[in-house]
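cron nightly-structures :: item 1 of 1
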Amino acid sequence: MGLVSDGLDRAVHKAFTRPIPKSAGAQMRYLVRQLKGTRAVAELLGVSQRTVERYIKDQIRRPRPNLAHRLADAVRARWQPRVREQARRQAATSTGIIIDTRARFGFTAAPGSTDDARIRHLTLALPPAFAARLFDAHQAGASEQQLRAITAEGLGEAYFRDGGRRAHGLEVEFTDVEQLDFDL
C-alpha cells in the first residue's frame, strides 16, 4: 500500500478493544469462522485446504514468515469491524484526526514571497470534514496520490491557512514524506 493508507489503517487499529489472536491456529480458526470454510481461507492465503486444516488442529504451529504476515494481515483486516467503523465515524463527525508528519512542503504563492520547499515536522489535528474525506476515499479504493492530495489540502487548511484566516490563494504541495502517522 502506501504511507497514507497504511497510516489510516494503523490509526483505526489503535481503537481496537481486544488484541488479535496471537497463535497461528487461533488466527486460522478466526478466519474460518469469518469466511465460513477452510476452502475460502486457503484461497485467500494461497495455501492448500489441508494446510489450513492442520493449523486449525494445531498440528502446524509456526507458519513461514511470508504466510505469517499474510495471515496476520487477513485477521487484522476483519478484526472488530464494529469498533473500526465506530472509530471512523467518530473521527469523521466529531473528533477529527491527528497527523504527525515530517515532509517537504512547497507552496505556490504571490510573487515576492518565499515559496521554497523545506522540510517541516508537523503535528496537528485535521477537522472532521477532512477525516471523513480521507476515510471515504480510502474505503473507495483511492490511490495513494489521491490520499496525499486530500491530506495536503487538509494540512494546508489547518496549518498554513490557519482555518481560512490567512493566505487564501496558497496551494500546498506535499512531497518527500519521511514520516507520516495518524491518530484518532
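cron nightly-structures :: done
The CA atoms of residues 38 and 53 lie 7 Å apart.
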